[in-house]
Amino acid sequence: MLKGFVITPPVLGRISIGKVVERNGKRLPEKDDQFTITTQVQSKDGWLPHPCDEILRQEQGGKIRSIPIRLLFNDPSLNFRAEYSYFDRTTGRPVCVGNGEFCRRQSDEGVEQFSCPSPEGCSMASGGNCKPYGRLNVALSDDDPLGSFVFRTTGFNSIRTLAARLQYFQAISGNRLACLPLELRLRGKSTRQSHGTPIYYVDITLSHGMTLESALSQAKQLDDERRQAGFDQAALDGAARQGLCNGAFEDSEEEGAGVVEEFFSHAELAGDEAVQQRGMERRTLADKLNDKMARLAGH
After folding, report:
1. I need a labelling partner for 266 at 20 to 30 A (CA). Which of 121, 144, 177, 234 fits?
2. Which DSSP letter does residue 139 get?
3. Integer Cα distance of 90 and 264 in angstroms
4. What is the mean pLDDT of each run of 10 residues along the chain (299 residues)?
5. Distance CA 237, CA 27 (A)
6. Burial (Cβ within 10 Å: 0-12, 13-18, ≥19) of residue 4
7. How far apart are CA 96 and CA 11, in angstroms?
8. pTM of the model
9. Sign (positive/negative) of CA torsion 9, 15, 18, 19?
10. Distance between CA atoms of 115 and 92, rounded to whole angstroms?
11. How far is CA 146 from CA 60, 140, 210, 233, 240, in A?
12. In the chain, domain spans
């Protein structure tokens, strides 16, 4: 296996609740109130729709608000990875990735590890340069049992909800998360900051019309059938865990460019130079304060 190269779940397509539109010659992210399922092929007009998109759209009256799914792994952290991520918005290359305790940062000497105080306490992340960034891999059909569709988000509501749901479903199912019949569901909420405008985020629930007892029974039955057929779920989780730990950064420059385009507004991009300058000034002040504290401590 190539070292330093993260092996992620195979991706067949994308799931999003937003889109990129062109205005005045600029490609800008725009929020939406529905799911869109696309292939991995992009034309000048955007991502090409996946056949699943049209099927679900017809079934749900034109707007996709829920998507039937299964998960690939029993370990929640393999299905959904969430980190604080700082992208170089010119190249799309991930520069720094952290979990609130430690971070891995690209430098001239290679990838180095530092403490991660979260974006609120990091001078490098000032101005919104660093965002929580989550990736959820789900299966939409049984045609390819190891293929997945990826949902990417920088929304705190989606990240918090998805992480909680996966942990809870794993617990109540007796570690049969990959066997539960589930669905992605779009939810809305309003906050004081949104001034009454709905904010849409993604949740995971049991399949529509299914009780908890019937879902658990179905998961147990599927797990037994897979074991009898020789399906080794623990080995699959282990292989995925090893692949994800094989490198420092999950997203390549190619994927990172798409992330920057989809989740960072033009106003943020235009303000990068000023933000970076303010960050350097704050970092210099922080360095001075740290030096003074060290002297006072006698170091």
Report:
1. 121
2. B
3. 12
4. 82 87 68 91 87 95 96 97 87 86 86 87 78 94 90 93 98 97 94 78 96 97 97 97 85 74 56 41 52 56
5. 38
6. exposed
7. 24
8. 0.83
9. positive
10. 23
11. 27, 11, 25, 12, 11
12. 11-264
Q: Order of strands across the sheet with 66-69?
A: 66-69, 182-189, 199-206
* Those residues with Cβ within 8 angstroms of residue 27's Cβ, 6 or more apart along the chain or in another chain: 20, 21, 261
Sign of the dihedral through C-alpha 249, 250, 256, 260: negative
Question: Can you read off the two tokens belonging to residue 182?
Answer: 């589930």
| Residues near 206 by beta carbon (within 8 Å), at least 6 away in sequence | 180, 181, 182, 183, 212, 215
Q: Rounded to whole angstroms, how far apart are CA atoms 232 and 178?
A: 12
Q: Count, in order, helices (H) and strands (E) of the chain.
A: 8, 12
Taken as a whole, the chain contains a residue count of 299
Q: Is 251 helix (H, G, I), strand (E, B) or coil?
A: coil
**Are 106 and 95 in contact, with CB atoms under 8 Å apart?**
yes
